[in-house]
Design brief:
mainly beta; single chain; 9 strands; 1 helix
């Protein structure tokens, strides 16, 4: 299965659209910031119960934490030019690991469960992951 997102005017899954103000209008966003750790926002998906992948960012060249519906951080997303390029996954009882994402003008994706696209964390990933684990503990998540 391929995970992908097509950039739409409705802002599907965090889609970025070029407009006079830049980004997508607030009323069309499917994510909201629930907290901030340092300069990194903690986002939660507002359209359902799962932690859907945020494949496009309103802000270019940024990093976000992504939380589940309860507010427990499970992922770190890295963006370049508004497009997801790397994710760090660490759901409950899961060994932290990274995946790299590919993109074209309007599609960002990766092959799901691809053993050739699972990598260990680098130093920055480890630092941000430890910060997320600390945040989760401070907020009552184990």
């Amino acid at each position: 299965m391929i995970i992908y997102n097509v950039c739409t005017t409705m802002g599907g899954r965090g889609a970025f659209q070029n407009s006079k103000g830049g980004g997508i209008n607030v009323e069309y966003r499917e994510y909201k910031a629930i907290d901030k750790i340092g300069h990194i926002k903690v986002l939660i998906w507002t359209e359902g119960e799962n932690n859907k992948t945020i494949t496009f960012s309103n802000t270019p060249n940024t990093t976000y934490y992504s939380a589940d519906k309860y507010g427990r951080i499970e992922k770190i997303y890295y963006y370049r030019d508004h497009r997801l390029i790397k994710s760090v996954d660490f759901k409950r009882n899961e060994t932290p690991h990274t995946h790299y994402w590919s993109s074209s003008d309007s599609v960002v994706g990766r092959k799901e469960h691809d053993p050739n696209n699972t990598f260990p964390l680098n130093e920055r990933d480890i630092r941000l992951w430890k910060t997320a684990v600390k945040y989760n503990k401070e907020h009552g998540f184990t």
